[in-house]
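Much of the work behind modern protein science is quiet bookkeeping, done one molecule at a time. The protein below has been through that process, and both of its lines are reproduced in full.
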Amino acid sequence: MKIRAWTTATALALAAISTGTPAQAEDETLGRKLFDEGVALMNKGDYAKGCPKLEESYQAFSGIGTRGKLAECYEKWGKLATAWALYKDVADLAKDAKDKVRADVARERAIALEPKLAHLSVLVPPAARAPGLTVSKNGVAIDPRTFGSAVPVDAGKYTIRAIAPGRKPFVAEVTLADGAFAQTEVVLAMDAQVAPPPTPPVIPIEPPRDERSGGGWQKPTGLVVGGAGLVVAVVGGAIGLSAKSTYDEAFDSGACDAGTKLCSQAGQDSVDSARSKAGLSTGLVIGGLALTGLGAVLILTAPSQKTGLRLAPTMTAGGGGLVLGGTL
């Protein structure tokens, strides 16, 4: 009886003749045409074409009956969350219009769908709420007021994307069935590319002086600086090897997927740690080589009377090269 009342009310709403302007009458005629086409497609089971037609009908000439039929179409199409929201709208509008029969039918249908609804929660912790943050679901921005709330959604696949200046983009995919619940936590790590690379240490030196002006300081200074540079470079290389090992382990352990580049929280932490180590390693190696080169310059340019160092070519069975020799 209630369903019949619903259908009758829908027909009456669409059959009413507009008493407004010619433009309103034209919109009503278009709305009625689109409504009839949408219902015909819906009755054939072609909801993928019928529901958009009914949506266009509602946009051309809004009416409670059209909205109710649209809700019914989405329900049969399997888009339960969309249908549920439309039924709730119809119930509220019908209540305001003192249409108790239609309000009761819409409310009952919404209540019947609630146990079947899928829910998705997008959790954005305070650490991820960076200035300029934008979080979207399938390309549509998410209202920050709903962060952490279980929001009814249609069953299907969703891509959650978060971006913020100076942070690495976050992307996650989740697939929900009817009645399922899923929660995705947004993690925005600092982008290593934004931080400036480590600056090699700069050691001020005086121009080389001859023996009479005290140039004998160059040789010991060069040995100390060059030796320190070698140590720094070796440490940097060791850190680089550790970074590669940490990065490879994130993928070898399954915490990160090599194809999609998506990682679990633990995998993302490992990748971030590896990138930080790699940046430090690069700075140390560059700084160490710079110091080593500086030490060599100091030694080679020291007065010959004090250092006794010399470069000489040499030939062997396996090739040739240069030999640094002399007396200390």
About this structure: Residues 265-300 form the longest helix (36 residues). The chain has three domains: 2-115, 118-185, 211-326. Residues 227 and 292 are 7 Å apart (CA to CA).
